[in-house]
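Researcher: I've been going back and forth with a colleague about how Penicillin-binding protein might be arranged in three dimensions. Neither of us has a model we trust, so I'd like an independent prediction. The organism is Flavobacterium suncheonense GH29-5 = DSM 17707, in case that matters for your notes. Sequence below.
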Amino acid sequence: MRKILLPGLIIASTVLIIARLFYLQILDDSYIKKSDNNAIKIVYDYPERGYIYDRNGELLVANQPSYDIMVIPREIKNLDTLEFCSILNITKDEFLKKIEKAKVYSTRLPSVFLPQLNKIEYAAFQEKIRKYNGFYIQKRSLRDYQVDVGANIFGYITQVNDAIIQKNPYYKSGDLIGMQGVEQTYEEVLRGVKGVKYRQRDRFNKDIGSYKDGKYDTISVQGSDITLTIDIELQKYGEALMKNKRGGIVAIEPKTGEILALVTAPSYDPALLVGRERSKNYTALYNDSIAMPLFDRGLLAEYPPGSPFKILTALVGLQEGVIDEKTQFLCHGGFSYGRGAFMRCHCGSGVRDLNIGIYKSCNAYFGNVFKLTIDKYNKPRFGVNAWSNHVQSFGLGNFMGYDLPPGRKGHIPTSKYYDRWYPNGGWKSSTIISNSIGQGEILMTPMQLANMMATIANEGYYYTPHVIKKIKGHQIDKKFTTKHVTTIDKQYFKPVINGLFDVYNHGTAAGLRVEGIEICGKTGTAENFTKINGKRVQLTDHSVFVAFAPRENPKIAIAVLVENGYWGSRWAGPIASLMIEKYVKKDTITRKDLERRMLEGSLQFEYDKVTSGQPFSINR
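Model: Here is an independent structure prediction for Penicillin-binding protein. You can compare it with whatever you and your colleague have in mind.
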């Protein structure tokens, strides 16, 4: 038995080894396709990115051809460096740096030597490419913008870096990827799928045809087209109105949460980040630390909301039962909330109920409502938490979940926040009374302000704001069709909406009425502080305005914030009224007086005060 066992094991092992070798060398030739195989060259076929359209079907972003010069360092032979550099208009030092960078990546694998040649450069190089072993042309497509607005919405295309390549094996050196905006959020559907071709080469490195007759080749799949919720004409109008100003505009369709316009000012032409000059242009935009054109103020800038927040103060007071719409308070030019503590008011003094309090924006009225809300509970911490929970149900104090990469969650304080500030206790409703009028510790983004108004227009619910309307061949995320309901009962919204309507009839926006449209809105003036040379300095107040229209069956909710814009009805209010008329009346503008003032007006002199030393205008 032993005599048979040993030879049997040897024979069996030999058979297994032979079978494995036969499989690897004859049946399975996948190893041959590896990119470091000298006899096989992998060529990628890059698809066109998906097109981008606005809600009305207008083409916003298409594609244009681009040509990259690729290099495989180990294949460079007998290169006339001077001629090569002359054709491409680069120096010898630039050439050596690019070759060295390519070698660091890989001596055997292709990487981008010079990206994004235009047609003339491509033609000149193509004529002599046969002389330049180790170099070849890779055709790609770059974005071709049909509009010069919406850069913050679209984002841009750039080359992948090493970190992205290591994280996602789909990408290779020189590949393009979407960054920021919808290009980043919807990268996987927009990019498509690149095709792969395996080419055989002989020992002289000459292409001798497809490997295995193209058995392993794949074709590229074009990226899916997407349709945005943006109304590009409204976006253009908003960016024009915000010229020479800083701030943001966010417009939302209340019934769906679809973002109609997302304006940040100042902005830039998206075409600046396409082509050979992309890197230089991006650096210039990035280094502008004063105007910050790459900073999306609609999504990232956190401001005290000012008087628009009084709307929520009223709703929480109604829900908590500390007031009804007929409850009255007396205003003596402000609100006295402690010994020597006085919150000034500009409403003109007198008896104030809910309606008058809203349309006259009475600080005394809302100071009383807030104090009663907090003091309803036996401890202020319980009152603040109840108030905070109501406010957060409007989507405030949290990331909103919209489909654009950047975002800030703002700040809605809770008792834990004040316990940290007052570790020994002692804080109460009067300590934090500034919250009643949207100052204090409250911070909101223009996106959150617009969503707040959409929620009020809907009388208590909202959908997560989003810019995607349709993706060809795909479904949009269900979270954008999921209703969010606030903690405020529907019955309390009507009296508040009546007050917002009277802001345009009798109140602070009476001069901003638009014939034929019933607009509900609220002006706001938000205090503005910064640090100059290490000192906290109060700058000119921000101008804030929120609104929705029409009053019945609202079609648009909007928030406008203009930095250093004095008060709500001076800059933000007119811009909001014009945007509403533009959208509701389909391009008809009757308030030519407001339009002319907004289009021609500039606040640059205010922004220059930071460096000029001129005094700021403070609204007391």
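Researcher: What would you highlight for our discussion?
Model: I'd start with this: Residues 306 and 438 are 4 Å apart (CA to CA). After that, consider the following. The mean pLDDT is 88.
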